[in-house]
Every structure is written in C-alpha cells, then in structure tokens.
Design brief:
Rossmann fold; alpha/beta; binds D-glutamic acid; globular; single chain; 4-stranded parallel sheet
C-alpha cells in the first residue's frame, strides 16, 4: 500500500492526483483532523506529529510514505528519513524541480502556510539548483480556513487571494508554486489574479508524477505494493466537514475510519 498522510483533509488533493496516475495501486490515507492545522504550529510540534502519522501508516501496512502536507514536508522530512526505512516522498522537491525546469522562467513565487514559508525550504532548494533565480514567498494563512469552509468561489475569497498575490505580482513572477495542499482548489482564482502568463505549479500533481516515475524505475519497491485499486481513509477525528470536503475533492463519498491518538 502507498501510505499518504496530511494534517487533515487537504492531502486528498494528492490522493486524487495519485489515483489519476496509479489507479490500480492500493492507497491508505491518514488525515490528522484532530490536530489540524499544522501550518500555524512550531516546527518541533509538526515533527512530532509527522512521526506519529508515519508510524500509524506503517503499522497499518504501508510500504512507502508520501508526505502530502507541505508544512510537514518542510520541517519533518529529514527526521522521517532518518527514522523510517521505507521510500519517503515529500511534496517540496517535485514542485521545485518543475519550477526550475524552464530556463526562460527566472522569477518564482511561492505561497504556503506560515510554517512552510518560514522554513525557507522552497527557497533553499530552488537556489541550490538555479542560484540566479529570484524567489519570493508569501504566507497565505487565511486560505486554508476559506477552503475548509467551502468558500471556493466567493467574492471574499477572490479579494483575499488578490491581496495575498499583490506583492508577487509587483515582483513580476513568471512561475508560481502552490505550496499547500489546499491551494489547488483555488487554482482558477489564483490564475486569474496572478495573470495568465504565470505558470502555476500544483505541488500535488508534481508529487504524484514523481511517485509514478519512481515506481517505473524501482521494480523492487513497485513489486511489493499491493494492487487492488482500493483507498482506505483514516482520520484522528471524524467530522462532517471532512466528509463534505472529501466529496468536493474526490467527487465521491468516502468512508472514514477513526484512529484514536
Ligand atoms: N496541509 C497543510 C499544508 O499543506 C495545510 C493545512 C494545515 O495548516 O495544516 O501545508
């Protein structure tokens, strides 16, 4: 099974992208809905939660781990790689690789939670590959609650997106990384507000492509994964909101199983 975890529901955007690329593989998802959000918490707390999330998935039989949460990927990847002896995919590197791949694009914008932006991980990874690139980051803390409220098309959401993107527009970015699980749901509004000529990189799709390519090239891991096309969803708190948003993202109702932390 491919184990995917997130701070809550947003990681379902990654499940959706994985299912599109790898429909036959079994997926097991853990959303830490009891302790979400991670984006406002300290790195120490997020690392502790990420270890527990990974342990839950491995105990349930996951043979590899996909960290769907940008915040957890930003601060906990090194610790997870030290602790667990399975292939681990984080969401930052695939998006960075995509952002730097076009030599004509030289000005990158990154939007994410405060914890992700404060970690500086996106900036460091981009600069390590293309030091000449200009990189600008903006935390967008209000976007997660707006998505969770289902305010995907409201005027208020458009206004807030516009305000957050304004500094990046002034910097004339030509590529924008959506560095948070929830932002793909606002992609259309973001594209309108940032302008058509800016290439938007959806980190969930970039991650799914990286996992797919890894499996094509690593038959040892690939052959160990079970392939029944199933999807199991575990959460640390069962809420109506999760069911609602899961339906918005996956376009189908899901059955949630509760895990007491
Ligand atoms: N999943 C988080 C991320 O991608 C967003 C929600 C949260 O703050 O927990 O950064």
């Amino acid at each position: 099974m491919i184990g995917v975890f997130d701070s809550g529901i947003g990681g379902l955007t990654v499940v959706k992208a994985l299912k599109r690329n790898l429909p036959n593989y079994d997926i097991i998802y853990f959303g830490d809905t009891a302790r979400t959000p991670y984006g406002t918490k300290s790195p120490e707390t997020v690392v502790r939660y990420a270890i527990e999330d990974a342990e839950i998935l491995l105990q349930k039989g996951a043979q590899m781990l996909v960290v769907a949460c940008n915040t957890a990927s930003s601060v906990a990847t090194d610790t997870l790689e030290e602790r667990f002896d399975v292939p681990i995919f984080e969401v930052i590197s695939p998006a960075v690789n995509m952002a730097v791949s076009d030599p004509k694009r030289t000005r990158v914008g990154i939007i994410g939670t405060r914890a992700t932006v404060n970690s500086g991980v996106y900036v460091d990874k981009i600069k390590a590959i293309r030091p000449e690139m200009k990189v600008y980051s903006e935390p967008c803390p209000l976007l997660v609650p707006l998505v969770e409220e289902g305010w995907l098309k409201k005027g208020e959401t458009r206004k807030i997106v516009k305000k957050y993107l304004h500094p990046l527009k002034l910097k004339q970015i030509d590529v924008l990384i959506l560095g948070c699980t929830h932002y793909p749901l606002l992609k259309e509004i973001i594209q309108v507000k940032i302008g058509k000529r800016v290439k938007i990189i959806d980190s969930s799709e970039a991650l799914s492509d990286a996992v797919t390519s890894f499996l094509h090239h690593n038959s040892d891991t690939e052959s160990r994964l079970t392939k029944g096309g199933t999807c199991q969803f575990y959460v640390s708190d069962v809420t109506e909101q999760f069911q609602k948003i899961a339906k918005t993202i996956l376009k189908t109702a899901v059955t949630l199983e509760h895990i007491k932390l």
